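Posting for a labmate who doesn't have an account.
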Amino acid sequence: MSLVQSRKAARRPIFDPTPVVLVIGVLLAMLGGAMLLPTFADYIAGNDNWPVFAVSAVATSGIGSLMFLATRGSGSGLSTRQAFIMTVMVWVALSAFGALPIYWSGAVPTYTDAFFESISGLTTTGATVMVDLDNQPPGILLWRGILQWLGGLGIIVMAVSVLPMLQIGGMQLFKVEAFETPEKILPRATQISGFITLIFLNLTGLCMLAYLFAGMSVLDGIVHAMTTVATGGFSNHDASLGYFNNPAIDMIAILFMIIGSLPFLLYVQALQGQSKPLFRDGQVRVFLMLLAGLILFAWIIEEVVGARAGIEALRFAAVNVTSILTGTGYSTTAYDGWGPVAVAFFFFIMFIGGCAGSTSCGIKIFRFQVLFQNLRQHLARILYPNGIFTQKFNGRPISDDVTSAVMTFFFLYIVSFAVSAMALSLAGLDTLTALSGAGSAISNVGPGLGAIIGPAGTYQSLGDVPKWILSATMLLGRLELFTVLVLLSPRFWRS
């Protein structure tokens, strides 16, 4: 390298923020456009809250447009470092601006509460600080649903196009399946994202129609459809789904929570006439079998403690177990009142989650499958030292880098949960609230356990410090740990 080239390289910035600013600007402009929907909802309903959403829409779209115009044409693509930063900053920026109408409307007393509600929506966690939901204006209720719907769609697109590229927590396994095999689903990730968006829209519409036929009002049907398919769990009522006490609504919720928890890439294949993978996929089969077993166990708990009996007990067990396992967070009863066994049971299943490439959260089924394959291989080598054993997922060999990434993910997940729980405890929360709050936040489930943040409570009474800790934990869990934690490494910022 010549002296001139060396000097140019020395002057070159370690990190060029313009592509990141460009993407954030575009998404903020789109978020501002989405704010017009609750603006019209409040205006049509005659609620004087509509100017708040109008001003928020103008401010958000205006700032987003300026960011886009200032950086347009400044870059040809994203480096890996830029992709990491962009992923985190997008969620933070959208949460910050999504909180504006919640705060300015007076629905919550502080910006901390508004940010908590916003990031809880976009991460599809469903933890809420809002009280008296039954009397909130329609614009606010609709905006909460829109945040979760946008978050659910964003999560799927991120899981399909970003996380496999960044090799996050074993997600490179799905990059191989989606883009590098002879039977490619579609030639470009953008086309896949377009198909997924179309599927997501149609599923939301079908869910809404089903809720309307089951007796929901139009507003309830729209909001609950968005939060069900996105496995988010925000409801228009303090009693969540329990407000309706309707078996048909419960069954619809169960069906679409399950649909939202299955890999959306398989739906793309099904649309192209390849429906067999949807029924043969190892993740799907394990998830459905596990769900059935957990519902049966919860049913037995109800029967033993005398909470309910018969078919009614099965219905309550099914909707609440499905809600927690998929990370949706709906509730139809205070299930933590079924005794200490139930408390331990629901605390455990909130960590599991659904399938990779879905809207669900938690550790994800495929990681448990990889963990089981690794354990089985080690046991087989102990028994047969000279044998050759291969780990497989869906009939394909699992590479060592995938196994290593999954094992590291499990370790970091436990450490992150423990750190968050300790921080909440130091912030003054009792043990059950700290543990279940940390578990719920990192798994993006929503309700915790206990009298304060349990299925019958809210996060409103917590102080500002616990709310910011939980907000950070929600983001950490939603972005699969590595995406956030890598930014804390000094090595990441070195050239």
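Reply:
Got it, the structure tokens are right above this. Residues 3-12, 176-187 have pLDDT under 50 and may be disordered.
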